[in-house]
Amino acid sequence: MSLAMLKVMALSLWRDRAALVMAFLLPPLVFLIFSAVFAGATGESVRLKVALADLAHTATSARLQKALLADKDLRAEIAKPSTLAEVREEVRSGRADAGLIIQGDPDQPGSPLLILSDPSRAVAAPLTEARGREAISKAAPDILLARQIQDLKPALGELTAGQRANVTLAEDQLIQDPASAPKIAPLFAREDVGGAKKGTGTIAYYAGAVMILFSLFAAMNGALTLIDERRSGVADRLLAGRAGMGPVVTGKFLYLIVLAGAQATAIFATAQFVYDAPVIEHFWLWLVTTLCAGACSGGLALALVALCRTREQGQMLSTFVILILAAIGGSMIPRFLMPPWLQALGWFTPHAWVIDAYQGLLWRDEGPGELYKAWLVLALIGGAGFALAQAAARRTRV
Amino acid sequence: MSLPAPADPVLEVAGAVHAYGARQVLRGVDLRLCAGEIYALLGPNGAGKTTLARAICGRFEPDDGTVRIDGRNPYRDRHARTALGLAPQSVALYPQLTVAENLEAFGRLAGLKGPALRAAVQEAMEVTRTDERAGALVRTLSGGLQRRVNIAAAILAHPKLLVLDEPTVGVDLAAREAVADVLRRLKARGVAVLIITHDLDEAAELADRVGFLIRGRKVAEGTPAELIAEAFDDRMEVQADVSPDLPADARARLHDAGLTEGGRPGAWSCFATDGYARAASLDSQLKAAGVAVREIHVRRPSLEHLFERLIAEDAP
Questions:
Q1: How many CB atoms within 10 Å of residue A366?
Q2: Which residue from A32, A252, B97, B230 has the highest number of Cβ atoms inside 10 Å of its Cβ?
Q3: DSSP string for A107-132
């Protein structure tokens, strides 16, 4: 009996082209957009747009400006007019992520470079500084050498004539061939955790985030048909029969799990083929996680609809709940960017568990021993929602 | 007034009493319906028809009294409901599915499967003459055809009792006749049919018996012909259509002539044994009184006249 309802739901979806697009095309598309945006924001491919102005007008400052303009990691552009006010305006208006003013000769003591940034873009200033330093060390290492010698002067005293001649020689050589600069061991060494899986964490994060977001949307739409059935008299017809609404609710629950699985397949296939996320490699764990996530969204949606008397109430409640859960659970903004109390609150949403489970299996190579907790939480939410919906369906008899 | 009750009724409601809070909705309703009988339950809005139908469908148990389908309590015993089919007032089908797919789905939900399901779907389509449109999506069908599929979905499990709530509301005359034809076929197969309707013409045309439910009480029951004969003997309705804006003295003269205004403004009527002779004398009387008569009708009384009389008699 329940399979009959599953077939009814599947055929209704199949013949509704708009709903098909919403169910299967939109989720991978949103995933691609989110992953492109956030993989950049949290990874190594950020290219800041920097407005430049050379106020020093010296030969060295001109070389520095040229080096910054040539750097591929920065999108540096000379402000027009090349003034402090114009650069400030470009940053204020958001036309540039940060501003860089060459306010003094880089060869001379003091702070020749001034970074202008909007405080609301906290990462813009340090990134500009880091990228600027890297550009200078690659294209004009002689400037750094000259400044280091200036810095050492208080400790070492004046250079001797011979030392000054050596410095001049070294500077000339560096101007002619910047690549010949001696490699100095940096203070910090860096290690990419996860090795070859660089970026998979973000991909897994957003695949999971988009999956649970859209499976909840689709589940709510599917569950709302319970209200349509009450309104159209289908529920009256079935309640007058032997089986009642029980098999209908069960059939819808099964359908919503299958639908969530199909949506997840579309999203994770995109992740596999576009970003090389190792979905096939972890297929069985992925399947269990997906079924648990589908059961969770299906049960939750059926329970929410069971609380509503009209479609309007159902739509209002579902929009409210879905958006709040998505915002807290990390489907909209990466959870690690949230304040700690909000991150803790996130564990009360299915989203955080779904995201954590997918990240665990695709990124951290976790097995059932680590994933069982998320599976249990999701299955329990789904089971409780399903039980509530069944109880409400029995109550409909009166 | 009632027919002698045959043994073993398919539906038996005895002394059904029910209230929603302080509002008494059913006040001791009795109803018996036998195999192969069509019964029309009539009454104004709020009379308790839907509440009675819900009790019959096992949606709740009345506060007092009993409801039995085939001898079993439809609320307590879900097997009692296997003998019941319901065609709700709205078209209770899945619009994105074809006729056959809808019937297959409802058949499965009624517990049918395999060859029995296929046979039931085919039979239901044949009885309702919807088999030629088996592959059409329900949303593309005309209102009349949708109504017939609505009935087809209710008879899949071969119910002994079919309950129809306003089966022809909103359909044209041809579609109404097609639905009536389906119900006659079901009657011929021995199905007991309970129609809840406002359509008095439909009831008169189709029903073996009708029952009037007013303010939770069954105030009349019997065959349409019996009920009308009992209420009006062999009198006929004489109705004169005059201007609705008659002066007061003309209205007084119409009252003196034994006429009452009702139904619509300007329609004055009375009941008379010698209907045609009364019409002729009324015409002369009105002309002599200076009342311009547009039209005079002579009609045999119908369920509509009975309904109006019952409503008037029951008015508080």
A1: 18
A2: A252
A3: TSSS--EEEEE-TTSTTHHHHHHHHH
Per-residue pLDDT tens digits for B127-169: 888 888 899 999 999 888 898 899 889 888 889 999 998 888 7
Contacts of A397 in chain B (CB under 8 A): 58-60
The minimal CB distance from B92 to the residues A236, A248, A398 is found for: A236
Helix axes A200-223 and A311-329, enclosed angle (nearest 10)? 170
CATH topology of domain B11-229: Rossmann fold (3.40.50)
Q: In terms of CATH architecture, what is B236-300?
A: 2-Layer Sandwich (3.30)
Whether cis (ω within 30° of 0) applies to the bond prior to A28 is no
- Distance between CA atoms of residues A184 and A253, nearest Å: 63
Residue B46: count other Cβ atoms within 10 Å of its Cβ. 13
For residue B167, the chain A residues in CB contact (below 8 A) are none
Q: Are B314 and B214 in contact (CB under 8 A)?
A: yes
Across the interface, do B105 and A5 touch by the CB < 8 Å criterion?
A: yes
Tens-place pLDDT, residues B249-301: 778 878 887 888 877 788 888 888 887 888 888 888 777 777 778 888 888 88
How far apart are the C-alpha atoms of A208 and A213, rounded to whole Å? 8
Contacts of B157 in chain A (CB under 8 A): 241-242
A296-326: string of b/e by CB count within 10 Å (b at 16+)? bbbbbbbbbbbebeebeebbeebeebbeebb
The total domain count for chain A is 2
Cβ pair B57:A247 closer than 8 A: no
Q: Which among A240, A247, A398 has the least Cβ separation from residue B86?
A: A240
Instruction: Please give, rounded to a whole number of angstroms, the shortest distance from the CA of A308 to a CA of chain B.
Output: 20
- Chain B within 8 Å of A178 (Cβ-Cβ)? no
Is residue A351 located within the same domain as residue A220?
A: yes
- Helix, strand or coil, per DSSP, at residue B298: strand
pTM, two decimals, is: 0.75
Do residues A337 and A313 make contact, with C-beta atoms less than 8 angstroms apart? no
Nearest to A146 by CA among A176, A116, A170: A170
Report phi then psi at A378, rounded to 5: -65, -45
Strand B192-197 with B38-42, pairing: parallel
Question: How far from B94 is each of A105, B38, B85, B106, CA to CA, in Å?
Answer: 78, 28, 17, 10
Q: Provide the ipTM.
A: 0.81
* Number of other CB atoms surrounding residue A339 within 10 Å: 8
A211 in the same domain as A90 = no
Q: Answer yes or no: do A244 and A391 share one domain.
A: yes
Q: Report how many Cβ contacts below 8 Å link chain A to chain B.
A: 89
Residue A79 near residue A87 (C-beta atoms within 8 A): yes
Of A150, A180, A210, the position where a domain reaches its end is: A180
Instruction: Tokens for A118, please give them.
Output: 């909007």
Phi, psi of B289 (to 5 degrees): -85, 0
- Token pair for residue A237? 């017809």
- A116 has which bridge partners? A99
Q: How far is A13 from chain B (nearest CA, A)?
A: 9
Q: Are A8 and A121 found together in one domain? A: no
Q: What is the mean pLDDT of residues B53-70?
A: 91
Q: What is the rounded CA–CA span in Å between residue A348 and residue A338? A: 15
How much is the average pLDDT of B174-194? Answer: 86
Contacts of B110 in chain A (CB under 8 A): 241-243
- Domain match, A148 and A172 both: yes
